[in-house]
């Protein structure tokens, strides 16, 4: 028995998220179907974390156990042949049997893209959130500083979040960059709750619009009340950018 680690990327546009759901097209189910064709039996995969409906991944990590004796290049080629065009295997690697894609992950980085101009970009409409109103980038950057550090992010989690244990997370870095039309949010932490990044971005956009004060972030940490924060940004602007194990 061997344990294989895959690094994959996917366009989340036509997926109802990562995790298997009854009668819905998901990333996990699609990959497991490909592995079943190779093994002629069910093979369960484990990921570094789930992504929501429409969310993309540039570096999702999964692992699975196999009885097949294939080299790494053959794994990549075989799965590329069996998977649809909106999932790509970037690399395959034989790893130690104790490796776990989720439990061993040390850091994750998410990217969120906002298009901030009057008209939308037709060909990128599934890959960025279009916000046509004028935004204060200065206020957004100032507010983002308040997210960095170790906090209880209960207020930043979806009400349906079923994370076991506490909701304290550490954010190591949060960059807000702009090229004049697009705003890029890049946030790195030791873990993220359901909808956490999307709620953070939605809140920062409302701050940039003048609909909320920067102080709402600290109030959310103190009260743990979701209602003091802004909307949940749509999933299609979000990318799982990188998973680190060091």
UniProtKB/TrEMBL annotation:
Q: How does it assemble?
A: Homodimer.
Q: What is its EC number?
A: 5.4.99.12
Q: What class of enzyme is it?
A: isomerase
- Catalysed reactions, as listed in the record: uridine(38/39/40) in tRNA = pseudouridine(38/39/40) in tRNA
- Report the active site residues: 52 (nucleophile)
Cite the CDD domains for this sequence: PseudoU_synth_EcTruA (cd02570)
By sequence similarity, the record places it as follows:
Belongs to the tRNA pseudouridine synthase TruA family.
Gene3D superfamilies with a match to the protein in the record:
Pseudouridine synthase I, catalytic domain, C-terminal subdomain, Pseudouridine synthase I, catalytic domain, N-terminal subdomain
> Superkingdom, according to UniProt?
Bacteria
What does the UniProt function comment say about this protein? Formation of pseudouridine at positions 38, 39 and 40 in the anticodon stem and loop of transfer RNAs.
Keyword match Zinc-finger: no
Please give the name of this protein.
tRNA pseudouridine synthase A
Residues reported in the UniProt entry to bind substrate: 110
Record keywords, A-Z: Isomerase, tRNA processing
A Gene Ontology molecular-function term? tRNA pseudouridine(38-40) synthase activity
Residues annotated as domain Pseudouridine synthase I TruA alpha/beta: 9-97, 143-246
């Amino acid at each position: 028995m061997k344990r294989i680690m895959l690094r994959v990327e996917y366009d989340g546009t036509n997926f109802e998220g990562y995790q298997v759901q009854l009668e819905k097209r998901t990333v996990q189910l699609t990959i497991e179907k490909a592995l079943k064709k190779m093994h002629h039996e069910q093979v369960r995969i484990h990921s570094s974390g789930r992504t929501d409906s429409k969310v993309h991944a540039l570096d999702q990590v999964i692992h699975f156990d196999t009885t097949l004796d294939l080299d790494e290049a053959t794994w990549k080629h075989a799965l590329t042949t069996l998977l649809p065009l909106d999932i790509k295997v970037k690399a395959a690697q034989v790893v130690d049997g104790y490796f776990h894609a989720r439990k061993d992950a040390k850091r994750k980085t998410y990217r969120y893209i906002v298009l901030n101009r009057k008209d939308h970009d037709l060909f990128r409409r599934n890959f960025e959130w279009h916000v046509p109103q004028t935004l204060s980038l200065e206020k957004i950057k100032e507010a983002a500083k308040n997210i960095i550090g170790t906090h209880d992010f209960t207020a930043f989690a979806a009400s349906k979040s079923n994370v076991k244990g506490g909701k304290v997370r550490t954010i190591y870095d949060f960059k807000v960059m702009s090229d004049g039309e697009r705003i890029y949010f890049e946030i790195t932490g030791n873990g993220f709750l359901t909808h956490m990044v999307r709620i953070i971005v939605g809140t920062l956009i409302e701050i940039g619009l003048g609909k909320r004060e920067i102080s709402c972030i600290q109030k959310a940490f103190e009260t743990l009340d979701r209602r003091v924060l802004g909307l949940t940004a749509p999933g299609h602007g979000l990318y799982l950018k990188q998973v680190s194990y060091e």
